[in-house]
């Protein structure tokens, strides 16, 4: 099994968006992370490139790394420039209902990205997809794909589950929508046997140190992604659904 670190960033700024403090790294931290990445000799892939290797069973570089960003904050522009200077591609997952909102990327900015940035879909409104009725789920998945394809005039090939939450129905909806891959979270290493529609990612937070990043690039500090959904994940989903139903009844 060949471990692959797939990093998940959100915002890179000295002024975190409200409520996102934990998931925001400063530009200085990000520069330090890139320095460690460069020294590790890792070869960057987009999610779609990595997923193609998973499907084909071949062609994976010796030391691959995948860098992803969720939501579509405007500070991604600077992060993408830094990645480009380092010769590394990125995959950005955009919540399409937030395009042009405060502190989010605009339509024109999304259209400006070159081949070094893959733009994937991250739903329209960032709900927990495994709690939705089928019609709403279809709108979030297929609708976000249509939004980006209309904007960018090219196929949108990859999807990221908001909050990482998905079940069999959500996964199948992503497949049926015509995506080639999907990113989960798991906080585990992906690997050459991973599911291309549930690619494991490791969340980078404000507390992620350079030493931690160095560990990950050495293949240490996290488990390998598991094949089947864990019991505690199913239990937490059941808890969320019960809690949501009770809230509706109280209203």
Architecture overview:
α1 packs parallel to α7. This protein is of the alpha/beta class. It has helices at residues 27-40, 47-56, 76-85, 107-111, 134-152, 168-176, 210-217, 231-250, and strands at 3-4, 6-9, 11-12, 24-25, 43-45, 64-71, 90-94, 117-121, 158-160, 181-186, 190-191, 199-203. The strands form three sheets. Strands 2, 5, 6, 7, 8, 9, 10 and 12 form an eight-stranded parallel beta sheet that branches. It has a two-stranded antiparallel ribbon with strand order 1-11. A two-stranded parallel sheet has the order 3-4. It has one domain: Alpha-Beta Barrel (TIM Barrel), CATH 3.20.20.370.
| Sheet having the most strands | 8 strands, parallel
Approximate shape: globular
Report the sheet-strand fraction: 15-25%
Number of strands: 12
CATH architecture group name: Alpha-Beta Barrel
**Which percent bin holds the helix content?**
25-40%
Alpha-carbon Rg, integer: 17 Å
Features:
TIM Barrel, alpha/beta, 251 residues, eight-stranded parallel beta sheet
Lay out the secondary structure.
Blueprint: E1 3-4, E2 6-9, E3 11-12, E4 24-25, H1 27-40, E5 43-45, H2 47-56, E6 64-71, H3 76-85, E7 90-94, H4 107-111, E8 117-121, H5 134-152, E9 158-160, H6 168-176, E10 181-186, E11 190-191, E12 199-203, H7 210-217, H8 231-250
Helix pairs in contact: 1-7
